[in-house]
Design brief:
homotetramer; alpha+beta; Chorismate synthase, AroC fold; five-stranded antiparallel sheet; 7 helices; globular
């Protein structure tokens, strides 16, 4: 069944495997007249790129994207925007040894069960490389949102046991360190921790937090397509994500209604605001104008150098050990992916909201 | 924008407000030839029904559903199944006092911002009453899943600070107590706690866990429509939900890859299974045949008897205090809703999976 | 597969069989704030109703519709509008004799082949009764279009060999005669012809033409969802329709480009118009502001009193003869159905057009 | 609004303009395990290609397609198949003179009204070049259909006044002449006629007929997604199409029910068949196993060498005369496009049909 599209009005379709000709995305529904910011696409692809620092995989992907359609004289035309990113540095041979293997906690086994075959080179369609296409499309979505003043910023708030205290956040410095943590000291700790994990031949999980500021009021639908439900699906569709929470999240379980409720008041300009924001900017599935914030849990990368028991395609026991070039912790590179998926959801609901009143 | 449908092949559309003629659902895409189990619909609606016990709201809704189409001589015909549930016990006057109010952490304000008007009687379309339609549709989905041997069971695993230990679960007794906790002692504690909260005029949050057993292998799509992404959206679309996690969930953050990976082995019948199940039965977005399990966080109900500051439609400050008949804790009644939404997702992916191979 | 919805942003889902509890429609995506004109729904349902005149079936359906949701204090709220039309005058026994029969050129055989069963009472889901739900929804779409000044009028332009000359049309008198022909003399001829056909125990085909005036410019999409492609699908989805053409239609085949082209000029108010309208108001799939016009061919009704050879479910030869109460010619009752489907397409594209520019 | 996708389960998304980098298509939902027939793609693209004969445009497009994803070791993998066709021979300068012009009966005016801008080079997105992407995707659909024994053949049945008699058809010779008419003598007449029209600097319309043989029974949905409704939309979405009819089509208007009905009988193998086929192989929207046949009317190409009055973007009167390289008659090149769109509809319904029974 066709399952490679995301969004309804601002809709993307991605394609491509990690070791074929390349990956790409078609963005359908982007309004005409938007000035294209090529640098933003480049920057976001660089932020996602493997090999960008000592704590990411050393595998190098050159992200030379091409815009194949939908842009004329520097502006979107309202027709589908097609972006292609060729695969480079394809060492298919690196994967010959896993041709018949089911790597633990990868998609090898389930994919084979579903389709009866699989492109075993680097995970094929299940490779996280697919997310580069999302990042490119997300950059276009960010341009649309920026036109309406909406801004999205994600950052790393936890790596293994090392947590970032909410009070110590300076979003201006997120990109100043390779872990993308908006606090210098915590960033250092995280980096040191990851380097140690890497030396052990192991991997570790983490959390990416995201803030959407200056969100318009009224975005989101009241029933199935609640804004946070669509954000949740978007995040859970990213490789290695295990959980999603927004506003108070799982902590809400411990709170009483009288504590949890966000009371309405007016700010100095007379706008209706809330005195707290346990709602995370969304009430009844619809944005209320306060900051939208949510958190995304990532599991440790499944490829580890340590030896592990497994079963192969022929049903035989075998020992597996990661030989590829992989990340010890996925979260620094996940930051732009979280932003991209959030931007796609917001752009979609921005357009949807244009049709609900006479 | 049309946002009242859920699912692609097994697709439901719901309608109705808490205080109009009634609510309903149209189920489109249910295969023909399925024997209808009317009792299951009745039972599940009763489990969701308000006023079912001392720890739920005393508001009474009589859930006398009618099947308007799609069933002939006791079997589904392949045409849309329409189920209507009339509203009874409609005390619209109960809501006259909130006509112009924006109740804290309800959808009153955002809904008005979005649509420019609102049916203020009992939350209108944003009322949790809409979920009765989902439960009815979910019962049909459960029948379809049962035909393929798939079983879904949800239960309450936490109320405020009271947690259920994983080792102490007996799913056979979930329905034997009014809190729907699969452990007698913990159930008692939870009930006592909720009664105390109610006396305080307050409310409290909780967690509903869900287990899907005997799931087929190969359900779910590898990219956007990952099985857990669709389950996540389904859960996050339920009123009052703040977070979703599956398998190891947020705990995965603290784990190392070598601990987290689920190793493949063979069971006594020679089937490929995993020795642990941090994957929660889903790898790369596709079911692997192990038990699927996930957890859903509910916030405390927003309507509290305690007085709270707010702003009304005219922009004036006002004091709000809940007078309606509301639940002190939503989780016992949320159990069948979680099951229903899970069933809808599984039924949809079951049908989708029929089309991926020649 | 779910196939009972139509439209993307202004989206309807219908359900119901000719002899169950009733039929209905859920309209999702209608903007909030639209004043509901109940009389229009009633009028259009009456225009489609069987038994309305001597040249239609004498079967009586009382079209007492109920609005179950989506309207509050006389206006749409932006939530799904559910309309239910109960079945009355259900003489299921009339159909006992065709329980195992495959009536020639009905859906009995194909439906059984597809679903493995069938609700044989009156055609079940394949009955033209389903179109009453479309007419009710179409009335809502007409209200939305009227808000923007768009008007839709259909009429009978041919019955068997009796054609209406384009020059002799007065759309003000369409509803003044039972055949719905906008010319008194031709109407009389058509009626006489149909009465004769009825006496023969036979049926005859016809053409319904439709004009959409004051259409906004810019409606329709340039590729797959061309305005006329969506209108075509809408019309072809009506029971008994065999063909669709717009503007010059099949006559264009005989024309040369230099004759067929519609030259641009300016009218007295300085608006860009075309000097001819072979385009039928649509160029490149997008409306150009000129009158949209198209024609829909209906086959003769399949139920005839004359005896016909057939095969039954058991594979045995049998003789079939229509005993039900059926129309000798479907076109007079098809007029409001054509209008309704046209309105649904136009309403959908009106909403879609709101999202294509910044 | 996103409108560049077609189909539900076998779903394509196209992109690209006539004078950008190229055009392309992403096919989502093609089952895994299908052996790819590259030659069929090449052949069908050649059949659609401009410049293939003296009666088509002399503009040359080299259709060197690339498959970017979805195929591994010669078979489809179940992931999206992306096909890209680079633009060659791009004489953008040819179009500088029409930058501000609204060519009569082209999409220039409506496109500008809708989007507020336009890529004026060769029609941009509205160019028939987009159909090359459909033809490539249609070839994949044909491979899937061939696996199930379903075969699609289109041919030219009318050019201007020159009609092909139904009795004189030999589908084996369709491709033996440049007009693609399955009768040698009529082909010659058509070619002579078109050459004469070309000399006049004019263009002419025509009809493409299509036959689908060995169609499975049970394809199509009974309500909105009737098989012929989806075929009709598919055809009407092709550039220059003005009408669609299936089976008896517009001729049904003149027939009586007793003549039109297709009586059921058994053939020599005991299969249920009909003695005539006015239904065109589809009853109640669902295929009955007989040959499916339909006809598509094409208008004369809008670009003529003759001078024509028009209005430009600035609202000024101007004279327009075609200078580009265009076809005198579109039908020979439309044959593979009609087949491709038919194949896409059939492939979609083939997959949809897999989900309607337990």
């Amino acid at each position: 069944m066709a399952g490679n599209s995301f969004g309804t009005l601002f809709r993307i379709t991605t394609y491509g495997e990690s070791h074929g000709a390349g990956i790409g995305v078609v963005i359908d529904g982007c309004p005409s007249g938007l000035v294209l910011d090529n640098e933003l696409i480049t920057t976001d692809l660089q932020r996602r790129k493997p090999g960008q620092s000592k704590i990411t995989t050393q595998r190098k992907e050159e992200e030379a994207y091409k815009i194949l359609s939908g842009v004329f004289e520097g502006k979107t035309t309202g027709t589908p925007i097609s972006i292609f990113i060729p695969n480079k540095d394809q060492r298919s041979k690196d994967y010959a040894h896993i041709k018949d293997s089911f790597r633990p906690s990868h998609a090898d086994y389930t994919y084979t069960e579903k389709y009866g075959n699989r492109d075993y080179r680097g995970g094929g369609r299940s490779s996280a490389r697919e997310t580069a296409a999302r990042v490119a499309a997300g950059a276009i979505a960010k341009m649309l949102l920026a036109h309406y003043g909406i801004n999205i910023q994600a950052y790393v708030s936890q790596v293994g046991p090392i947590k970032l205290d909410k009070e110590k956040i300076d979003l201006n410095i997120t990109e100043s360190n390779i872990i993308r943590c908006p606090n210098k000291e915590v960033a250092k700790e995280m980096i040191t921790y990851i380097e140690q994990i890497r030396k052990e031949g192991d991997t570790v999980g983490g959390i990416v937090s995201c803030v959407i500021s200056n969100s318009k009021k009224g975005l989101g639908d009241p029933v199935f397509d609640k804004l946070h439900a669509d954000l949740g699906k978007a995040m859970l569709s990213i490789n290695a994500v295990k959980g999603f929470e927004y506003g108070s999240g799982f902590d809400a379980v411990l709170m009483k209604g009288s504590e949890h409720n966000d009371l309405f008041t007016k700010d100095q300009e007379g706008n209706i605001v809330t005195t707290s924001n346990h709602s995370g900017g969304i009430q009844g599935g619809i944005s209320n104008g306060m900051e939208i914030h949510f958190r995304v849990a990532f599991k440790p990368v499944a490829t580890v150098v340590k030896k592990q028991d497994s079963i192969n395609k022929m049903g035989q026991a075998e020992i597996i050990s990661g030989k590829g070039r992989h990340d010890p912790c996925v979260v620094p590179r996940a930051v732009p992916i979280v932003e991209a998926m959030a931007a796609l959801v917001m752009a979609d609901h921005l357009l949807r909201d244009k049709t609900v009143r006479l």
